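Worked example
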Amino acid sequence: MQLNLDTVDIEILKFLQKDATLTNKELAFKLNKSIATIHERIRRLKEQGYIVRIVAILDRKKVDRNLIAFSHVFLKAHTAEALGEFESEVAKFSEVMECFQMTGAYDFILRIATSDMDTYHLFLRNKLATLPNVSTVQSFFVLSETKSDTAYPL
């Protein structure tokens, strides 16, 4: 593994990816280390950027985000300024959960979460399609979700 981490650091990351509510005391018990050691290691992992943030993952259906779309976006211009402007603007949209610049036929793939098709349609017409550099948007809608994991294998 190409990480500058020892086995204890890796185990801490594995545990926290699965359950970030674990206390330092609980981690210390699981790893047979002192609470102070765990606290210091987590602080260091945050400082070094291995832990970017700690979040709660919500059930999207309970918060009325029943429709997930993956939208492929093709831009008219591909200058650094045009790409940066698109990224800056699309990041402001609360419906956009993820935005990836891609290789291939389309410039970006967006994961968009809305309550229903009508809300998605309004988002597309009144927000995404109004951005000045957008040429084409092709959307695909999720029918079912087989796997959704946030933990990286370490």
